[in-house]
Description:
By secondary structure, this protein is an alpha/beta fold. 32% of the residues lie in helices and 24% in strands.
Amino acid sequence: xxxxxxxxxxxxxxxxxxxxxxxxxxxxxxxxxxxxxxxxxxxxxxxxxxxxxxxxxxxxxxxxxxxxxxxxxxxxxxxxxxxxxxxxxxxxxxxxxxxxxxxxxxxxxxxxxxxxxxxxxxxxxxxxxxxxxxxxxxxxxxxxxxxxxxxxxxxxxxxxxxxxxxxxxxxxxxxxxxxxxxxxxxxxxxxxxxxxxxxxxxxxxxxxxxxxxxxxxxxxxxxxxxxxxxxxxxxxxxxxxxxxxxxxxxxxxxxxxxxxxxxxxxxxxxxxxxxxxxxxxxxxxxxxxxxxxxxxxxxxxxxxxxxxxxxxxxxxxxxxxx
Length: 322
Ligand code: SF4
C-alpha cells in the first residue's frame, strides 16, 4: 500500500525508548523503529510479550519519552511541542488499556469517570458535557442507567465500553488500543472488536492496535507490523502478510494459528530458545539465536529493512540484494 503524503497522520522515525535496568544496564525496549500511519487505517502490531509493542505505542503518543527519534502528527514533531501545545494535541491522541478494571477508579461512578477528560481539559459547560456523555454512552451501546453504576457493578465488557467512551470523549483521531480485548472472554472480545470497527467507520478513527494474538490483529487490521525484541521485522498490508509470510519470525507466529482452509495450514514451527534480554540484544540480526534459517552473516551483520513488494517490508538478509 503506497501512502500519499496528504494521508499521513503519524510518522515515527528511528524511535528508540531505552530504560535503566538492573545493574545499570540499558533496557532497549524499542530500538530504532520507523513507521507511518495513514489517516483512517487500523495498523495492527503483533509480537510476543516483552517485544516492545506497548512501549512503542505509548511512545507514539508521548506517554513515555523517546530516548531518540521523532514522532510527527500531521507534520508536527511531538517531541518539540510546548506543554500547552501537547495538551491540546493530546485530545487527538488517546489510548484504551488492556485491563478495564485497573484503569477505572473504583471510587467513581460512570458519570464521574466520563467527566474526567472534560475536567482535565478545562471544559466546564455542564449542559454540554452531560449531552456529550449521553452521546458517548449511546455510541458504546450503554445507556443512562449505567451513569450511576460503579466499576464493580459492571461486567468486563461494560467496563471496557466505558474505557472506550472515555477515550472518545474529546473526539480523538488516533487511538492506541493496547491489548484492548485481551482481558475479555472470547464472546465479549468479538462484541468489543465489532464495536471498535463500527466506531472507526462512524467516526473516521485511526487505530494503532496492539495484541499478542495474531488472530485478533488479523480480524481488525488494514496493515500489520510484526515486532521482535524492540524492532519491527515485517510490515505489510494484512492480505499480503497472510499470503507471503517472509520473515522467519512471522512464519513461526503464523504457523501457530489454526486455518479454516486446511490447504493453507503450514507445519507448526516451534522456535527454540528464549527471547534474549532487551538489555543485551544479540549482535547482527537479533533473531539469529532462534532463527531456523540463520547463517554466519546473520550473526555478524545487522539486516536492513527492504521493500520486498510495494508496501511489504521485511528486515532479513534473505531478501536483501547486498
Ligand atoms: Fe533469520 Fe538471518 Fe533473516 Fe535474521 S537475517 S531472520 S537470522 S535469516
